[in-house]
Each structure stands twice: as C-alpha cells, then as structure tokens.
Write a structure and sequence with these properties.
- The protein has 254 residues and is an alpha+beta fold.
- It has 2 domains: 183 residues, no CATH class; 57 residues.
- It is built from 9 helices and 8 strands.
- The strands form 2 sheets. A 6-stranded mixed β-sheet has the order 1-2-5-6-7-8, with helices on both faces. It has a two-stranded antiparallel sheet with strand order 3-4.
- Helix 5 links the parallel strand 5 and strand 6.
- This is Methyl-accepting chemotaxis protein.
C-alpha cells in the first residue's frame, strides 16, 4: 500500500485535504528532547507531509471534550524516511509533537506503517498535550491488507459519535490488521469490548510465542531425557493455548 492508496481507502472529503509539507525544524523544536533525537530527525527524515485536517464542520463528526482531553480536530500525516532508517523513535516523536491526534503513514524501504494514539492534557505543563496510552501501530502487508481492511479504514465506516470515537475506531481497525498478521485473515472488530479482548489475546499470543521459542532452545540443549520430556510437554501446553487464542483472534475475540 502506498500513501496515495491509503488516502483512497480513507475516502476523505476533498475539503479536508491539506497536502502541505511540514519543515523538519518544527519537529526538532517541538518534538526533540535530546541531541540524539535532533540528529535522528535531520539524518533519518526525508519529508513530513500534512495530508488532511479532519475538523468537525468538514467531516460532520463533533469535537470531543472531557476532563482529560479536548479534540478539536484530527490529522492525517505522512512521514517519509531515508533508506535504512529505523522508524520507531521518529514515529513516537512525531505523535508527541503534534497537538492533535494523528493517523500517521510512515514509509521506509518500500514498506508502509500505520500508527495512531490518543492524547491528553499534560498534568504538569499548561496548554501541552501528552500521549495517552500505548501507540497503536502496524506494518501494512505488501498487498495492502486486502479489500476488507481498505474498506474498514474508510471515514464513513468509523464511529461518528465524536472525534475521540473516530480516533478509537482507527486504532481498533489497525489493531485488527495486527491480529491478521497472525491469522492470515482481516476481521474487523464489531465493538469496543471485542476490540479490547482481541488486543489482549494478541499480546498474550505473542508472549507465549516468545516463551515457546525459549523453551525450544532449552530443549535442544538439554541432555537429560526426563528434562527434555518435561520441556516438550510444556511446549505442547503452550501450543494448545496459542491455538485457542488464534481462534479467538480469527472470530473477533468472542
């Protein structure tokens, strides 16, 4: 999937389009906490583009305000990195630098990553916002995630209660694509509770996979037969649990 294909999938109103290049110095001034971050921005980023601004009067979705946050708009940005650049830190810096929730498309070495996070008011600095909760991110498969994913991304298919719900909808859609990396099939979540259950199952699945890899390595080195048998039995139990979790991911976590 390319950035242009992403924009086609999002199906945003023409009135939201910005298509404006963002100078790297703005990210240096507002996002770089250390000299190392500044070097990473200068050396790793090729281009930052503000693709679209999703304001209530342009998309028909109300703003959101509660005691923790005030979403007046959301944004769609692209981040183009130079070959060989590791994106994780730069993606984090950009999300923290923009005062609105951002759906970010990051391209590097012919791959596309999508990320989004919630923001909240800073408890220590007036008029500042900070990331609220984990960053939701995923690498989009070369084929673009399939027609079902591209359909699910569309603005018209996101919750429209308010901008918080819209951002959460994109987070849940990205999380469903992340689950599809393990199941081979994209299945959108049908509710917030289902999305949360799937995300928890996915984290547990990946934790068990790492545990299984460690057990296999230990079993290969083990010389005592009884201990080998015990390790293999533990592996079988983990594999059975992983398969159960995989089924939950495939049917939507229910």
């Amino acid at each position: 999937m390319t950035v242009d294909q992403l924009l086609q999938a999002l199906a945003l109103p023409d009135s939201t389009r910005v298509q404006q290049r963002v100078p790297k110095k703005l990210l240096v001034e507002h996002g770089a906490a250390t000299a190392q971050d500044k070097r990473l921005i200068q050396d790793g980023i090729d281009e930052i583009t503000w693709l679209a601004s999703l304001k209530p009067h342009l998309i028909g979705v109300p703003e959101h305000e509660d005691e923790h946050r005030h979403y007046r708009e959301a944004a769609v940005l692209s981040l183009s990195l130079r070959p060989g650049t590791r994106p994780a830190r730069l993606v984090e810096l950009l999300h923290r630098a923009v005062p609105h929730p951002v759906l970010l498309a990051t391209t590097v070495d012919d791959s596309l990553g999508l990320s989004v996070a919630h923001l909240r008011r800073s408890q220590t600095e007036a008029e500042q916002v900070v990331q609220d909760g984990p960053l939701m991110s995923v690498q989009v498969p070369p084929e673009g995630g399939g027609a079902a994913f591209r359909t699910a991304l569309a603005l018209a298919n996101q919750p429209r209660t308010d901008l918080f719900a819209l951002v959460q909808g994109w987070m849940d859609t990205i999380a469903a694509l992340d689950a599809a990396q393990e199941t081979g099939s994209f299945v959108p979540s049908t509710s917030r509770a289902q999305a949360e259950a799937r995300h928890a199952a996915l984290q547990q699945f990946r934790g068990l996979r790492a545990q299984a890899a460690e057990l296999r390595a230990r079993a290969m080195k083990e010389r005592q037969l009884a201990r080998q048998v015990a390790l293999n039995e533990e592996l079988r139990s983990i594999s059975a649990l992983m398969e159960s979790l995989r089924q939950k991911l495939m049917v939507g976590g229910g």
